[in-house]
Write a structure and sequence with these properties.
By secondary structure, the protein is mainly alpha-helical. The chain contains 2 helices and no strands. It starts with a helix and ends in a 49-residue tail after the last helix.
Length: 105
């Protein structure tokens, strides 16, 4: 009886390992075309073009930064005066040349 039990356990383990291997292989094959399409790095020319397009738009402020508008009404009594105008946000853009990807040959 113990020999039969060990064969059953070994059979289930082998079946499980084969199922896991097949599942991993199928997921690898199916996920490749789904995830690799949008992950291409931009070239320096594409970055320059996108920056030129963005800088040519009028009032190109990020949506999270409201434009600074002076208050229309004087502050209420007891409210402290602001220290000065709020500085505008600054954006620093650095570009580095893109490395050529290695070609499989």
């Amino acid at each position: 009886m113990s020999k039969r039990l060990s064969l059953v356990v070994a059979g289930w383990l082998i079946t499980g390992l084969l199922a896991i291997g097949a599942g991993v292989a199928v997921i690898d094959r199916l996920s490749e075309p789904l995830t690799d399409t949008g992950l291409r790095p931009l070239s320096a020319a594409e970055v320059d073009e996108a920056l030129a397009l963005t800088s040519s738009l009028p009032n190109a402020l990020p949506p999270s930064v409201p434009p600074s508008v002076p208050p229309s009404a004087p502050p209420a009594e007891g409210t402290p005066e602001p220290a000065g105008p709020t500085p505008a946000p600054t954006v620093t853009v650095t570009t580095t040349p893109a490395a050529e990807p290695a070609r499989a040959g």
